[in-house]
Predict the structure.
Amino acid sequence: MNDEQLLRYSRHILLPQLGIEGQEKLRAAHALIVGAGGLGSPAALYLASGGIGTLTLCDHDAVDLTNLQRQIVHRVDSIGTPKAESARRTLATINPEVKVNTVIERVAGARLESLVSGADVVLDCSDNFATRHALNRACVAHRKPLVSGASVRFDGQIAVFDLRDPRAPCYHCLFPESGENEDMRCAVMGVFAPLVGVIGAMQAAEALKLVAGIGETLSGRLLLFDALTMEWRTVRLARDPACTMCGQRNQA
Ligand SMILES: [Zn+2]
């Protein structure tokens, strides 16, 4: 690290759990963020400011005036611009050292598989079950840690599925693809602005811990947050041996 990098990351380097070695691990790491909206904004801002080396941002959508209430990586002059590109511009003004790749499409299939296989950690900042299950499927197949967040109204949740560990549950163990889970879009239900900041920042924290290999992650735990009462609940997650997504992986 050069002098400027030592200064930029000095408050991380002061942390004994991270230090220069941990900061180098962040710099060597590649995070994939799917969704550059409410959750993806704080997640991308903290990963970039914190010194992740490479960030791939996926979002097919463009910035709209209704996004600016909570999607803090976007600016008024980005309205109409693809969200991934708008986020890339903001991140460059904070930390130009981070390499930011943008994918302006609704990713699925082989494209998603290839993006997941190239990442060290995957952040699900999407807003629909189809994308959540597709991401989980790719993370199970490529054994990548998945940091999953969701927020609607005043309710948030976050969990880590560390699929490098064969004993860890996957997203599908928790939410089987039954078709009963209906998408609860912010566009219809509304969402409290700082809620996505709380959950997205925690996703960044878990992603940085996973790549630096420090602390205890949320693997096997689901945290549920009620912003109206400021109460957190922890639900312990166990792997479902009959899970059609990760069950076969473990028999192989
Ligand atoms: Zn599973």
